[in-house]
Amino acid sequence: MSGSSKSPVTLGxxxxxxxxxxxxTLRQVEEATGxxxxxxxxxxxxxxxxxxxSPHVLNALAELYKxxxxxxxxxxxYLRAPxxxxxxxxxxxAATFAEISLTDDxxxxxLRFLKFLRAQKDDK
Length: 124
Fold this sequence. Notes:
Elements: H1 11-21, H2 26-32, H3 39-46, H4 55-65, H5 69-75, H6 84-87, H7 104-123
């Protein structure tokens, strides 16, 4: 691999991962939000065609998915996420996958992989 091209997670990718984790279809989300979020519109958000849906839509999704509304607002560009310096060396986002239900084994495997990546970085 050349360089460290660290691409941030987009709102659409994040929402698609959460919906998948919750085992919900686009139509189920539409019904569960009382049609506040249509399945076609959610599909456009997840595919990156809509980057900044209204705060109302984000709130409906945050409530349904039981995730942090502020984080969705940050990903949509409405709020600025604190820099690592502002948040301190060890910032409050314990894990990018905090909103996805990981089994204990999956979490342990992710931590082992992170340790491996950090060891490789230290060797350079």
